[in-house]
């Protein structure tokens, strides 16, 4: 969202009025009228913003002494019952005029649409969880205020600016006065929000949501600034002194989550490398998809001081893990650029990654609990099979799949344990939809022989099998490329002899030309007449489909069309061919039929419809 391009008529010579976009207006309306069930959350959001601003200034001061914070820097909450004002002040970086416009007059473009969709999908009692998921924390102030003023002065600048809005569709900008850098947020409290002018109520909210924030937070009571938070880094406390409630509250604040963590990892590494880590694996998928960014956002602290959440402390395939890593072994003045080449950080990354993997291995022993984790984050974890050679084997032991032989999730080790003695490979089938995979004709020959097939329907499943290649010395093989193996495996029940296709196959191959690389008979079909196969040398069929969708070039040779010699349709065609009849017109119909069975569209839908119509008419007229 963006403010209008042209400033509106000014309220005074020095004041400028700007319009919110219509989308901002709708978002403000949603916040104000749909989230009343837990309005106290506004204070958490504003205090968190103040803490972030203070952290940023402290970090900037490491390399620029002129930006140093005052000795008594803190976050101050001042209620004024008589004037019906609530002020939240900080000594952070502050904002310039342009930053006020950019940060408070603009919201991410798709925010309202996604926010509105989530709001409609969630029960009213659960709706407070939506704040913080879409970057609308500041706007929660309008739940309790009918007007909000922000007076801010950017550190290093002499000018201060005032941003003001009633949340109705516009805001004003004007010069202001502030003696020191930082920000004051002044809320004109609504008539039905009196409790947010009570100091004790405000202290309770701070203890609930922000007790762990290392910046001192005070609430003014009877003219005195009363400490409202403990201000201790929770991760530095001994485990014995931390309650489950505190862990949950910290996790929820850290990741803007409202569930309980599925797993909590809290440990201190000592010796050659010293650091403390408190990590959380969420118990549910966040509203913001983990696919939206591929970077780990673990927070790096140096001796309690926040440095960055862009240190990539975990690989992308563990980006769902949240938490804090606090080390003594990095200099306080380390820059973000230096972090990327710091050997100490590389060792921390390795240690943290190994610890998370160890935790996952332990928890995988509880199949039911691990299934919950896998359904939430399995698709992300499997990215490690594709991109991380160092940990590929570890991820393979954790990976879980749907299968033709198991109702629940199954692992590769379980599959290998169930393999038939004469079976040489681990077979899999990749597609877009699990239900479509279960009914795919590609499975018929394997099921007829009692061979288990893994069913893979996540996007990454089209890629990683080539990289993993083998598990416990068993090759992984797509069923679309494992056709030669079937002849070595006995059928569970003997099948009748098929038709002689020696005359039919070359005619169909000639009619199809370059549309296929070959036409051949197969014994891997039971109920279907035709099926497509990929050549053993190139990518399997699903990978070829993905490449086409992405506009990438694929191998010039087409798929292989396979015919079931025992199917009535193929028998009839073989008989007509043997009798000298022209069957070439059926070739493209068979190819399109095979494509449809694999979830693809006919190459030429209009031509396919015409051929089907002609076939039906001919059969109806002849009475056959």
What is the gist of this entry?
The protein is an alpha+beta fold. It has 21 helices and 23 strands.
Can you describe what's shown?
The structure is a single chain. Helix content is 34%, strand content 19%. The chain has 624 residues and is of the alpha+beta class. It has four domains: 16-227, Heat Shock Protein 90; 234-368, 2-Layer Sandwich (Ribosomal Protein S5, domain 2); 382-486, Rossmann fold, CATH 3.40.50.11260; 504-622, Up-down Bundle (Four Helix Bundle (Hemerythrin (Met), subunit A)). The strands form four sheets. A nine-stranded mixed sheet has the order 1-6-5-4-7-3-2-8-9, with helices on one face. Strands 16-15-18-17-20-19 form a six-stranded mixed sheet. Helix 1 (22-34) packs parallel to helix 4 and helix 2 (41-61) packs across helix 5 (199-210). The longest helix is centred in the N-terminal third of the chain and has 21 residues, at 41-61. This is Chaperone protein HtpG.
